[in-house]
Design a protein that fits this description.
Strand content: 15-25%
Structural class: alpha+beta
Distance between the termini: 72 Å
Order of helices and strands: HHHEEEE
Strand order of the largest sheet: 1-2-3-4
Largest sheet: 4 strands, antiparallel
Length: 172
């Protein structure tokens, strides 16, 4: 009579292999989840940049969110936010100034190396054009330590544009 089944050694080898695979795969999975959540930030900032560009060309000034027609994702028209991963904030330029940090996204939870409260910032300013009355919007980006690694495309928002300003974001 032939006995069929697995030996204890064979079962232990399978469990060890599954443990090694889980130890490698689980951190990678959480890293990919954080990156997918953070991919919202460059998209939201890009929408703001496009609306601000159009407003600057038309009005020759930096516009507030309501003037350019921008609402941050998950932000109600009353200014409140939903239970999303990020809080979007507007900081109007100082009175009489043509530059300032006017767009911020703040992480409401820890995402890999980006701590809760980590920020991405986008500063906008105006640079006069060659023709009288013609202006261009200029942008600068910045992110808190650890947050910029999640969103490499965020810093590319200024490529192809003038980016002579600097932006300060808490924790950078």
């Amino acid at each position: 009579m032939k006995k069929q089944g697995f030996t204890l050694i064979e079962l232990m080898v399978v469990i060890v292999i599954m443990g090694i695979l889980a130890a490698v795969a689980v951190p990678k999975l959480f890293g990919m989840i954080a990156k997918s959540k953070a991919s919202e930030v460059p998209t939201a900032a890009g929408t703001y940049v496009n609306l601000q560009d159009a407003y600057v060309v038309e009005a020759n000034a930096i516009g507030t969110w309501s003037q350019v027609g921008y609402t941050g994702p998950g932000t109600s028209s009353a200014g409140g936010t939903d239970g999303g991963v990020f809080a979007y904030k507007e900081t109007a330029p100082a009175s009489g100034s043509q530059a300032g940090t006017t767009w911020k996204a703040e992480a409401k939870q820890k995402l890999n190396d980006c701590d809760k409260g980590g920020q991405w910032g986008l500063a906008v300013g105006i640079q006069g054009g060659e023709a009288e009355g013609q202006s261009n919007a200029v942008y600068a980006t910045g992110a808190s330590s650890g947050c910029g690694d999640l969103t490499p495309s965020f810093n590319k928002l200024t490529s192809g544009r003038y980016s002579s300003m600097s932006v300060t974001v808490s924790g950078s």
